[in-house]
Amino acid sequence: MSVGAVSRDCSIANALGVIGERWTLLALREIFLGNRRFDPIAHHTGASRDILATRLRTLVDAGVLERRPYQDRPTRYEYVPTEAGRALRPILHALMNWGDRYVTTGPPPTEWEHSCGAALRVQPVCGHCGQPVSFDDVRPRRLGTVRPKA
Questions:
Q1: pTM of this prediction?
Q2: Residue 35 placed within a domain
Q3: Which residue segment(s) compose the domain that 96 sits in?
Q4: Tell me: the pLDDT tens digits for 103-143?
């Protein structure tokens, strides 16, 4: 184990093993923006083709994306989020909102809107009563061992 490594079961560490690379998150951003084909993803992220191909393959292998053919001769594919991939959308929204608030200056370059026209805001709510919560009002409860899925 390296210096500074944490020796505890951790779902965050396991999730970062799948989505924790810069180019992975930027590729997911592009896919959620509607750029589902390799060339537009490469163009808009600035990732090298080799690195991007590896990141997309990892996401497909992890069940986050599905590779679907959109053209024959030669066969070309687009990348479509699975249920697991779509579940990452609020995480990317929260990361974008954090970047807009604490890292960048000026108005945000992109804003997501609800169908009513209002800006999207990611807000945690209680799983039981549905009330919005502050993280000052919650505490962790250890349930057992966490292992990555095979």
A1: 0.81
A2: yes
A3: 88-138
A4: 988 888 888 888 999 887 778 888 899 888 888 888 877 77
